[in-house]
Design a protein that fits this description.
Structural class: alpha+beta
CATH topology: Factor Xa Inhibitor
Number of strands: 3
Mean pLDDT: 95
Helix content: 25-40%
Number of helices: 3
Shape: elongated
Distance between the termini: 18 Å
Strand order of the largest sheet: 1-2-3
Length: 64
């Protein structure tokens, strides 16, 4: 039986923490910074933890 391959798109976008939670970068931090406040920009820079049902699908793609 061949090995399972990791989904190459998922490995670039998600990471699994030591406790098993899945993190992703938040959307909306690429352009239009003139209209966004500094507070919003800093908030968007932080990683976000995925909800459990979504994390289950992503872990399947990452073979975790």
């Amino acid at each position: 039986m061949p090995k399972q391959k990791t989904h190459s798109g998922a490995k670039k976008r998600f990471k699994v923490t030591g406790t098993g939670k899945v993190q992703k970068e938040q959307a909306g931090k690429r352009h239009n910074f003139e209209s966004k406040s500094s507070r919003v920009t800093r908030r968007l820079a932080q990683d976000k933890v995925l909800a459990a049902p979504d994390a289950k699908m992503i872990k399947k793609l990452l073979n975790k």
